[in-house]
Specification:
Number of helices of chain C: 15
Largest sheet of chain C: 5 strands, mixed
Radius of gyration of chain C: 39 Å
Helix content of chain B: 25-40%
Largest interface: A-C, 86 and 95 residues
Radius of gyration of chain B: 18 Å
Strand content of chain C: 5-15%
Chains: A mainly alpha (about 325), B alpha/beta (about 250), C alpha+beta (about 425)
Shape of chain B: globular
Number of domains of chain C: 2
Structural class of chain C: alpha+beta
Oligomer: heterotrimer
CATH topology of chain B: Rossmann fold
Structural class of chain B: alpha/beta
CATH architecture of chain B: 3-Layer(aba) Sandwich
CATH architecture of the largest domain in chain C: Orthogonal Bundle
Largest sheet of chain B: 6 strands, mixed
């Protein structure tokens, strides 16, 4: 503000109508305080409600049959749990005998998840270290933004990339008859879960106090030694959490694996075999399964299995992260 | 005469750590009480008990009674009214991310003062009392957080005065201010004594000597001694007090 | 002395390695002790230069153990290296590069005593080098470390590149493949014949509707929940459970959200497959991330601001309204906008809850701009891409790529807005 005395008076002289309006708004907002606080509280509690509701509704669809607006608990006519958890045969539409064994699906999920993590974890942690420790200023900002944008690409687009771009490439390079297989899905999933690993990993490296680095460098350690001997041990919980969150994302991913994995219910024998995951099965078959039928309800049951799996992974990740925080405070 | 502030056997615990141990003292109206003592002796906790901002520390547990003008602060229904009656300045300067003007006008606005003319006058008066007016009168609409540390500290003081408190609590207010300004503010405090009770926590022993009517010495969460300032500084009863005020403490 | 006895077998040479001078600048000694003494200037040394100190041009001394009379000192391997720095003050030092001796006589004295203790066992064809340390130059160890650091940086850089380059390559490839299809008509025309002809207008509008509706529901609840967790929640078991719930809600796979949406909204609430059910499902899915980002934005506002307000008698809500929210709104918005991008790209949660494979949409009038009602099914861009690729056999490739590029463009531009907002607001941070 250039001319002083005028400048500090002028903004004060706003219209009196505006003044009284603002006064009114202020007092109305302040009067709403109890209502607002209760809304805030209720919203806060909603997270629990939703988690419980998700479980309850998926559970209800799996274990109850709805007739005339009333829920009737009902067991399957053709499914037994032993078969569900131990059989390799997933034949929901077989005319002779429907079989619902999820072992092959679990194997598919496992194969795709493990392979993708084998690619994503070293690359992701390496990139996290590079972004966090080896570059500064503009480069760092740019890389972080690129990785953030990488995370934004929708899963259906990744799936499309897998089918349309990566598939033909895999056929050309490996000579495999089909391009949509475990390798394809794993590569796609790796690229999808890398941003999570990088950003959480970078956060946990950033959380290591600078005094650690300074102390190590004052002792003459090179940057690499600082990373290897100081940062990795100090940030190991955070890095583990980063990996677990990547695993969680890989297990839960649907559209990309549906499109890129080949979707064949078998235990994959190698990287070039097609596979089928739990998530993809639900997405592909829910539309055709008759409502209330065994197939339909088994798909919900798979949903519960998935819910439990990811819940477990996230719980461990959370406990691990809390572990670092607790240590830092204490 | 009802004492303005009265601590009756007050004990504060943070978890298992005892921050104040059975403190009892009274402060008469329109006087300055100096609180001196080494670090970690419970001085700041003492202030937090007066305006009940101790409530915001989850682990804190308060026993005993703190009375302001005879009312137990814990039985008050409107704690915000209590806090408006007490001005509080903490050692680290905090400029709110508002303009200098709005920083000072914040509390009056919250208590329903919206007339622009009155606000202008109040802001000017408070800033003058805090010895800040001359430096910021040309830039009342810059951000309070962009002022220098010493200026922000005086802004905090102006804010504490803005709701016309009847008790002013100052916690080592002069840490970030240069000596000349400190002396000027001390003069203002002596003037303000005619309007309000001042609780002055300080680690400058001589500041307490210069300003306070009575002085209390805290050590290790305990009130070691309280008495007229002259007595504390010339012939204290406790050996620790003597060592502390003469600089031989430790 | 065993060491001295053994050393008589060989022949010791003091070699002053002066650059640029040819000719013998060395002398032979029968024992190491004599050689070292000569270095110290005590014994006899009749070379060109008395090597009692090292100069710039003559910056190293060598005591070599030759296996026979003819062998060359320059072919011996250095076994021990010691350093001398005359610029150094004080008399300490242990001869290492880090802590050198102050001058050559001191060096000789220490080497003698070390040899006496049997610490220097010079085998034939090995030598002791005494070098002058240059000031402020990297020591050998440091040079080695810098090399390993460069390698490490290179490796990590390659790892980062291997993530970034394929993505750019793929995106570029998609764009090139999509180029024939991309036109203004492609965006503004409705799909025809199950999407094999025409454009992508109807799915685009559908995506817009879904995102807007889900945002209207998720943003207020999410932001308020974030405010609750950061401002109101005390650290007790109940709020720890809420935190856990938020974390796990964020980790629930999108297909499970779809099952939930099907069970809760489509069936139990009787909404049927509809825009409303799909948006509700999306909003439940985006909720936890809005909560988390809101929380982070609020936590970035220093606690001292709140305390200052409380000390002035402001209530909690007044403090939040006047200080906390205005200073964290940028972070909150960033999080909300990111969720817009995520909701726009999601397919799985809307497959069973409201997305249609194909819907006939009017080409003109109100029906063109508002083709869907709350009760009707919608087309969505993400679903449309899935349909074109997997459900329909004869969709032209360029249209598939075109749809993918538009979807990516949409999502990335929304993200860019969020990033730009963040960068801009960070540049005018208020404290």
């Amino acid at each position: 503000m250039a001319s002083s005395n005028v400048a500090d008076v002028r903004p004060n002289r706003k219209g009196s109508a505006f003044q009284s309006f603002r006064q009114l708004v202020d007092s109305v907002i302040d009067a709403c305080e109890p209502i607002v606080e209760w809304m805030i509280r209720l919203s806060g509690w909603s997270a629990i409600v939703f988690v419980l509701a998700i479980f309850a509704f998926v559970f209800a669809q799996a274990f109850f049959v709805f007739e005339n607006d009333s829920m009737i608990p009902s067991l399957w006519t053709k499914l037994d749990f032993v078969e569900f958890f131990t059989s390799v045969k997933w034949r929901p539409t077989s005319v002779v005998r429907e079989q619902y064994g999820i072992v092959a699906l679990l194997a598919g999920t496992g194969a795709v998840t493990v392979t993708s993590m084998l690619i994503a974890v070293p690359l992701g942690l390496g990139a996290a270290v590079y972004v966090s420790e080896f570059c500064h200023g503009k480069t760092k900002e740019t890389l972080k933004i690129i990785i953030e944008l990488l995370a934004a690409i929708p899963s259906v687009v990744w799936g499309f990339i897998g089918v349309a771009v990566l598939g033909p490439l895999i056929i050309d390079v490996t000579g495999s008859p089909i391009g949509v297989n475990v390798l394809n899905a794993s590569l796609i999933l790796a690229l999808m879960s890398v941003p999570v690993i990088v950003s959480v990993g970078e956060d946990s490296l950033k959380a290591v106090p600078d005094s650690y680095r300074e102390a190590a460098e004052a002792l003459g350690a090179s940057k690499w030694e600082v990373v290897y001997r100081v940062l990795f041990p100090a940030a190991k919980n955070g890095l583990l959490a980063a990996v677990l969150l990547g695993v969680g994302r890989a297990i839960g991913e649907t559209m990309a694996v549906l499109m890129a994995s080949g979707h064949k219910a078998q235990i994959p024998g190698g990287l070039l075999d097609p596979a089928r995951t739990l998530t993809a099965t639900i997405a592909a078959e829910m539309g055709e399964a008759p409502r209330g039928g065994d197939h339909y309800r088994v798909l919900f049951l798979i949903g519960i299995v998935l819910f439990a799996l990811t819940f477990l992974v996230n719980l461990i990740a959370d406990v691990v992260v809390k572990g670092i925080k607790g240590k830092q405070n204490g | 005469m009802v004492p303005h502030i009265e601590f009756d056997n007050v004990t504060v615990k943070y978890g298992s750590h005892v921050a104040l141990d059975q403190i009892s003292l009274t402060v008469p109206p329109k006087s300055i009480i100096g609180i001196i003592g080494p670090a970690n002796s419970g001085k700041t906790t003492f202030l937090k008990c007066i305006n009940r901002t101790i409530d915001f520390i989850d682990t804190a547990k308060v026993e005993g009674n703190v009375r302001v003008s005879g009312d137990d602060v814990r039985s008050l229904r409107n704690v915000y009214e209590l806090r408006r009656r007490i001005g509080m300045v903490f050692p680290l300067p905090v400029g709110l991310p508002l303009s200098v003007y709005e920083n000072v006008a914040y509390a009056p606005r919250r208590s329903g003062m919206h007339n622009r003319h009155d606000l202008d006058q109040l802001v000017e008066k408070c800033l003058q009392q805090a010895m800040l007016w001359d430096e910021v009168k040309d830039r009342l609409h810059t951000l309070g957080t962009k002022l220098s540390g010493g200026q922000q500290q005086r802004l905090t003081l102006a804010r504490a005065l803005s709701h016309r408190p009847e008790i002013l609590c100052l916690d080592e207010f002069s840490i970030a201010i240069d000596p000349v300004t400190t002396m000027k503010i001390e003069d203002v405090l002596l003037e303000l004594k005619n309007e309000m009770t001042i609780v002055l926590v300080t680690n400058l022993v001589q500041q307490a000597h210069r300003l306070a009517d009575q002085t209390a010495f805290f050590n290790q969460s305990k009130l070691v001694e309280i008495g007229d300032t002259e007595k504390i500084f010339t012939e204290p009863e406790n050996k620790l007090t003597y060592e502390y005020v003469t600089g031989g403490f430790g | 002395m065993a060491d001295a006895n053994r050393s008589q077998a060989g022949c010791y040479v003091v070699h002053s390695a002066e650059k640029g001078t040819a000719g013998p600048n060395f002398q032979r000694f029968p024992t190491m002790e004599e050689a070292v003494s000569a270095v110290a200037g005590q014994g006899s040394f009749n070379g060109h230069q008395q090597p009692s100190n090292l100069t710039k041009s003559n910056n190293s001394l060598v005591i070599a153990h030759l296996s026979n009379e003819q062998s060359d000192a320059s072919q011996c391997r250095p076994r021990h290296r010691f350093y001398v720095d005359t610029h150094l003050l004080g008399s300490g030092g242990d001869g290492t590069e880090r802590d050198p001796w102050p001058d050559v006589p001191t060096a000789a004295k220490h080497i003698l005593s070390m040899a006496g203790d049997g610490k220097l066992n010079l085998r034939p064809n090995e030598q002791i080098v005494i070098e002058s340390r240059k000031m402020f130059t990297a020591t050998r160890l440091e040079k080695k470390k810098m090399r390993s650091q460069r390698i490490a940086k290179g490796v990590f850089f390659c790892m980062t590149l291997s993530l970034v380059i394929p993505v750019f390559a793929i995106l570029g490839y998609l764009f090139v493949q999509a180029w024939p299809a991309l036109s203004w008509d492609f965006v503004t025309l409705n799909p025809k014949r199950m999407g094999t002809e025409g454009g992508i207008w109807a799915p685009l509008v559908g995506t817009f509707f879904l995102v807007l509706m889900s945002l209207l529901m998720a943003a207020p609840v999410g932001v308020m929940a974030g405010v609750y967790l950061n401002e109101y929640a005390k650290d007790n078991w109940f709020n720890r459970i809420i935190n856990l719930a938020v974390v796990n809600l964020a980790g629930v796979p999108s297909i499970v959200h779809a099952l939930f949406g099907l069970g809760a909204f489509v069936l139990a609430a009787g909404m049927g497959k509809s825009l409303l059910a799909a948006s509700l499902t999306l909003s439940v899915m985006t909720l936890p991330v809005i909560i988390t980002s809101t929380r982070e934005a609020l936590a970035a506002v220093p606690k001292s601001f709140r305390e200052a307000c409380w000390n002035m008698g402001a209530t909690k809500w007044q403090t939040i309204r006047t200080i906390v929210l205005p200073n964290s709104i940028s972070g909150i918005l960033t999080g909300v906008i990111l969720q817009v991008a995520r909701a726009a790209g999601e397919t799985a949660p809307i497959i069973f809850t409201g997305a249609a494979i194909f819907l006939p949409v009017e080409d003109n009038g109100v029906g063109y701009w508002l083709p869907y009602t709350l009760k009707s099914e919608v087309m969505a861009l993400s679903m449309h891409l899935y349909t074109l690729r997997e459900q329909i056999n004869n969709a032209p490739l360029a249209m598939q790529y075109g749809t993918a590029v538009v979807l990516i463009g949409l999502v990335l531009s929304v993200n860019s807005v969020s990033i730009a907002l963040r960068v801009y607001l960070r540049s005018r941070k208020k404290w």
